Amino acid sequence: MQRYDYLIIGGGQVSDNASRAIRSRDETASIGILSSDADQPYSRPALSKKLWADPDFTIEDDFMSTAEDTGAEVTTSTEVTSIDTAAKEVEVAGGARIGYGALLLATGARAATIEAPDDERVVTLRSLEDYRTLRRLATPDARAVVLGGGYIGQEIAAALAGEGLEKVTLVHDGALLSEGRFPADLAQRYTRMFTDHGVTVLPHHRGERVEADGDDLAVVLDDGTRLDATLVVVALGSELNTGIAREAGLEVDEDGAVVVDEYLRTSNEHVWAAGDIISYPDALLGRRRIEHIDHARKSGDVAGASMTGEDVAYEHTPFFYSQVFGNRWEAVGETSTQHETLEVPLDDGRLVVYYLDDAGKPVGVLAWKVKDAMDDARQVIADGVTDPDELRARIR
């Protein structure tokens, strides 16, 4: 039976950072990565951002050279079906068992789906193979319907509009795009950006199913409306891949996240977890879960170090970002308009938004088109600034 000193389940960003952290501390240990993806580790955000926006950035540029740089053995197209924490072994599809000294779960999430025919023209965007398919189908005569108004839906609708498709329709269930995060004026400006770039934004609707309609596709909405399409992108959120953790007896919370301590260790002393799947104790905001690349990188760093025996706590509060039509925003913390907000307009249409709890203390900060603001934003949250005038002066 094959055995690794360090075994990682999942071949995304976490696995790359963790492998580098392990190798920098242990030059001779064996590192194994079991990935369900068909490709070597790559950076997932580029699938909806840079690979569309930057003509000089290619798929080859997106690979992270994990195996070459760290000596990790990466096994692709491999599904782990169970974990035996007593024997310190995992089992993969087909029945082979692999042993470990320390195990890291970095299984991430899978795309939510919708009732639809088995047709390559109905695409989710979770893998590089999905991107290749979508790119091939995004021809000038294509009529695309994007279902879902979250990050991926917005970014893909913008990307397809930039490709000059015949028609791009974005279906979402709110009144304005990002209205749950952006203050009303910004949400209106943001939605108008899409329509100004030729995207048909269809609010107050949900996609119920996709049907074959002759040579085309038909998207059936919740009110029975049928939208004809040659391409459908399903961007309805994600579901955590934590079934094997639960079945192994690891602590999983009511939302399906793997519960870890400040060192990213699970309820089993030989198993760690990082990235999208974890509920972790944030140093500034308390226990939470987040799905973004900054979190994947930093939690991968800490998990890898912790697995080698180094007492490194995860004290980073991750930021998240998006960029459409050349407009970038970044945010940190709890950025929901359910909180009271304080808006600070700057020049050239830039904006800083503070999200305040019931005591007037900031729990989140959003920076619209403001560069390099996230360290200052974290400091504002850490300082607990409650004076509105001081907040207005803090990030300029």
Q: Could you name the key traits of this structure?
A:
396 residues; alpha/beta
Fold and architecture overview:
This protein has 396 residues and is an alpha/beta fold. The protein has helices at residues 13-25, 50-53, 59-62, 66-70, 128-137, 151-162, 184-196, 243-247, 293-307, 374-383, 388-394, and strands spanning 2-9, 31-34, 73-75, 80-84, 89-92, 97-105, 109-111, 122-123, 143-147, 167-171, 199-202, 207-213, 216-221, 226-229, 231-234, 238-240, 258-259, 271-273, 278-282, 286-288, 319-324, 327-333, 340-345, 351-356, 362-368. Helices cover 25% and strands 31% of the residues. Strands 1, 2, 3, 4, 5, 6 and 18 form a seven-stranded mixed beta sheet that branches. Strands 8-15-9-10-11 form a five-stranded parallel beta sheet. The protein has a five-stranded antiparallel beta sheet with strand order 21-22-25-24-23. Helix 1 (13-25) runs parallel beside helix 9. The protein is globular, with a radius of gyration of 22 Å.
Q: Which radius of gyration do the C-alpha atoms yield?
A: 22 Å
Average pLDDT, all residues: 97
Portion of residues in beta strands equals: 25-35%
Distance between the termini: 58 Å
Alpha plus pi helix count? 11
How many strands, which pairing sense, and closed or not: the largest β-sheet? 7 strands, mixed
Fraction of residues in helices?
Answer: 10-25%
Number of strands: 25
Shape: globular
Instruction: Report the uncertain regions.
Output: none
**Structural class from helices and strands?**
alpha/beta
Q: In a few lines, what is going on in this structure?
A:
This protein is of the alpha/beta class and 396 residues long.
